[in-house]
Amino acid sequence: MRRLCFFPLPRTLLTGWLMAVFCLGSLWAGPQDREKPLILFLGDSLTAGYGLDPALAFPALIQKKIDQEGWSFEVLNAGLSGETSAGGLRRIKWIMRRQPAVMVLELGANDGLRGVPLHSTRRNLQGIIDQARSANPDMKIVLAGMMVPPNLGPHYTETFQSMFEELAEANGLPLIPFLLEGVAAQPNLNLTDGIHPNAEGHKILAENVWEVLKPLLQEMVDGRTK
Fold first, then answer.
1. Is residue 45 flagged as an active site residue?
2. Which class for 191: exposed (0-12), middle (13-18), buried (19 or more C-beta within 10 A)?
3. 110-128: per-residue pLDDT in tens?
4. From CA 225, how far away is CA 213, in angstroms rounded?
5. Fewest CB atoms less than 10 Å from the CB: which of 7, 33, 214, 221?
6. 196 is known as an active-site residue
């Protein structure tokens, strides 16, 4: 499994050039050079595997499940801790240069925790979907649903959750109802911050994702073998 490399604005032009050469040279693989269809995970710290070795984060566990099935797909973890829907929208055009066959979109949780207006989050997520489809109309997109704590009031909480269901329905996307199902608010499955899943928690996240992603990949595999 590969990870996209992101870095802050360099202190010097030379440093930035060297970092860019390293990242692109080691991680970039254009579609003409890639044998396996790419599955892109675009998300925040949950996707990135905050506080853990990347090999323990759920995208890497999905890669293992794919390999166990004997399927030819490559997972790319484009998770970035602290990412918001606005940040994802800024990144999507560059990321789509990788021409993924599948994108799992996991963004919005940080918007909710910060109380970002829901219309802004919805607009950004729709923008990501639109730009991704514009770049690759044949790409499959899976949307990961999220929930937020009730401290911002019942209207915000309920509308936030239903937003993912509505986006999935409007765009014809498979929906993971709640990525953190079975993990949220479980101390033994989270790091000490109570927010980010630990290694055991990520195993459950992988199962939540796999339940929705596996049938989609099965269809793709069957389509290739016909």
1. yes
2. middle
3. 999 999 999 999 999 999 9
4. 19
5. 33
6. yes
